[in-house]
Amino acid sequence: MDTILVIDDQADVRMAAIVALNQIGYQCIEAQGPEQALEIISSTAISLILLDMNFKLDTTSGAEGLRFLQQLQTLSANIPVVVMTAWASVDVAVKDCDFYNNCRP
C-alpha cells in the first residue's frame, strides 16, 4: 500500500488530509514539521509527500519548505512532493519548479 507523508504545522490540516486520503485507500503518516519528516523518511518508505511551505505563524515566504526540499534532495530521496500553503505566492511556486526542474501543471 502506498504511504503518504503529510507535513503541516496545523493539526487540523493534517487531520483533514489524512481522513480524505484514508477514505480512498491510502495509508498516511503525519509530521508537524520538516525535522520530524526527515526522521520519518529515513526509516519509512514514502510514496508521496504533501508539504506545507510555512511552519511559523509569522512566516509566509516559503523558505522553510524550500529548505526541506533541499534537504530531501541531499538524501537522494526520489519522492514526489505536492506543495501547499495558505499564503500562495507565484514566486515560491516558480522557485519550487526551478528546484525540481520538472514541474507539471
TrEMBL record:
<keyword id="KW-0597">Phosphoprotein</keyword>
<protein>
    <submittedName>
        <fullName>Response regulator</fullName>
    </submittedName>
</protein>
<dbReference type="InterPro" id="IPR001789">
    <property type="entry name" value="Sig_transdc_resp-reg_receiver"/>
</dbReference>
<feature type="modified residue" description="4-aspartylphosphate">
    <location>
        <position position="52"/>
    </location>
</feature>
<dbReference type="InterPro" id="IPR011006">
    <property type="entry name" value="CheY-like_superfamily"/>
</dbReference>
<feature type="domain" description="Response regulatory">
    <location>
        <begin position="3"/>
        <end position="105"/>
    </location>
</feature>
<dbReference type="Pfam" id="PF00072">
    <property type="entry name" value="Response_reg"/>
</dbReference>
<dbReference type="InterPro" id="IPR050595">
    <property type="entry name" value="Bact_response_regulator"/>
</dbReference>
